Here is the input.
Amino acid sequence: MEELLANETARLSLRPLRVGETVEGSIASVGGDEATVDLGDRPAGVIPLREAGPEQLRVGEHVIAVVMQPEDPDGRVVLSLRRARNRKQWTEMEELQKSGDLIDASVLEANRGGVVVDVGLRGFVPLSQLVSIGAIDTREPGVPESVKALIGKRLQVRVLEADPTRDRLILSEKAATQKLRRDRKARGAAQLAEGDIRDGTVVGVTSYGLFVDVGVADGLVHRSEITWDKGVEPTSLHRLGDAVKVRVVGIDRERQRISLSIKRLGADPWEQYVDQLETGQTVNATVTRVMPYGAFARVADGVEGLIHVSEIAAERVADPNEAVRVGDVLAVRIVAIDRERRRLSLSARLAERT
Here is the structure.
């Protein structure tokens, strides 16, 4: 009798449960539309099956639940497994936001603003954070077909914002793609060494150069590293999907940048040709560019010099375009060779005298 009284006194002295509090227990019975939960020294708990979630409850199963009502008319604690799982999932999303780790998301719905996805919770990927859809015209009415086509597919996403108080979960495929690219570059940088020659594929063409995938990572071929020939637009030489061979010329592991070169696969034409030139020598040259101050002319593949406006013709020329055009072949005299600065000074005027 004393033991029973002691247990009852201990039960009555327990702090009252609060709505939203998390408790643990084991399933004592399942019947009708509810399950009874043994909470130890506390009054029994009850889980309405609508609050149990999709899983089938089994007697003896350990559960973690959230208190919905500290005491119902029968003196039992009303619990929810669904809310406990939801709280756990929000905690996971908050941790993923901090860590930056990626998760898979199943696309449920599409609208003009983006797509609704399932990651255990309903989340939203805004249109600006999708990369699987390509370029779209947001001025068109209705949901773009490329966005609708994502329904039922899975995306790798990164958590941008997880706010359980506002039930707001914003995700990004774009940020996930950027992280994957950075991770791939970091791994690739560890596998590459300066001087390596690799087969690659052009995956991007920009005004400043080419992005080339060399298998373990992608790197940049700066426009100055595409060709020795300065008489052509470098980025016009290659298109997306082109197979190219490149040399690794720089690896910045801290910034995860890989620099590549196409032109350095071959010998430097300047180094090869300049030793064959002498001041006063007359050679043929092809005009490659005409500028206000003169014309550039190619004397060999990858080697060109400047014909200053004052050296284009015997007569004074105000506008070089009046005297020469791109593609003209001229006899020029070499008047100066600057090996350190890799510059040739040419004269068509002096060549005319010979």
Observations:
- The mean pLDDT is 85.
